[in-house]
Every structure is written in C-alpha cells, then in structure tokens.
C-alpha cells in the first residue's frame, strides 16, 4: 500500500489490521461505520492508498475518478441501508478541521443526532470547513 503509515488508524483499517467491520471493500476503497456518528447513519469511505487530505488531491483524472468512486460507494451503502431517509450528505472536512490525516468521505443519512452536530458539517467558505463531495469533484474535474 503506497504511502501507508503504520501509525495511521485508517491505513490499519484498510489493511484489515483492526477489528473494524467493513461495510464495503474493493481494490481502491473500504467503508465502515463512523465510531462517533453524527447522524441516523454515518459511514466513512476511505481510499486504500494513504492520501492525507483533500489538499493532496489534484485536478487530474486519477483523483477525480477516486473521489467519484468514493461517492458512488457511499451513496450505494446509504441507499441500501436507509432507503427511507429523506436527505443524505456527502463530504470531506478540510484542514485544519479534519480529525484523521487520511482522506475520508463522510456519508450521512440525516437527521443529525444530536441536532447540534450539524455544526461540524458546515462550509466555512475560504476558511475551509466541510466541502460537499460534488463541489470537490467540480474542483478536481480535469479540463
């Protein structure tokens, strides 16, 4: 696994070196439940390859395809597990507000539980905050 670090908990999960139950696994990504859920359902989709943050992604086909695949997996899991949900959110925390330095897509089936947790998932404009997956894809789309 290129760039993997033994200290990175998400690299350990991607290598199945932890007891974390995987909801999805393929050659590019794994998905699992967030240990501190902020919504009715809260999953994380991470790349198997160690990529620290959204700032390490570039406007190129490889990164666009990876994020698009992460989003497809997250959508599939939530639609399978909570089809009755009226609203889903998909996005990434940007530094310095990311909790783990390994790229991870938050997949949320709303409502937020408790309600105040929505604060962690707000965009802070030029300061960063939470970026919706679709907005990140727009930034990464090759010209």
UniProtKB/TrEMBL annotation:
Keywords: Hydrolase, Nucleotide-binding. The active site is at 106 (tele-amp-histidine intermediate). The keyword Nucleotide-binding applies. Residues 9-121 form the HIT domain. The keyword Transcription does not apply. PANTHER family: ADENOSINE 5'-MONOPHOSPHORAMIDASE HINT3, APRATAXIN-RELATED. A motif (Histidine triad motif) lies at residues 102-106. The gene is LOC115746546. GO terms for molecular function: adenylylsulfatase activity; nucleotide binding. This is Bifunctional adenosine 5'-phosphosulfate phosphorylase/adenylylsulfatase HINT4 isoform X2. PROSITE patterns: HIT_2 (PS51084).
């Amino acid at each position: 696994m290129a760039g993997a670090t033994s200290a990175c908990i998400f690299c350990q999960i991607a290598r199945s070196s932890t007891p974390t139950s995987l909801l999805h696994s393929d050659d590019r990504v794994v998905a699992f439940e967030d240990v501190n859920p902020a919504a009715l359902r809260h999953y994380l989709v991470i790349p198997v390859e160690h990529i620290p943050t959204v700032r390490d992604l570039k406007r190129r086909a490889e990164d666009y395809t990876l994020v698009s695949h992460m989003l497809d997996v997250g959508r599939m899991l939530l639609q399978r597990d909570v089809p009755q949900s009226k609203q889903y959110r998909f996005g990434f925390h940007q530094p310095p507000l990311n909790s783990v330095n390994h790229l991870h897509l938050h997949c949320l089936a709303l409502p937020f539980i408790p309600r105040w947790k929505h604060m962690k998932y707000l965009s802070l404009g030029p300061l960063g905050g939470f970026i919706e997956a679709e907005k990140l894809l727009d930034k990464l789309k090759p010209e």
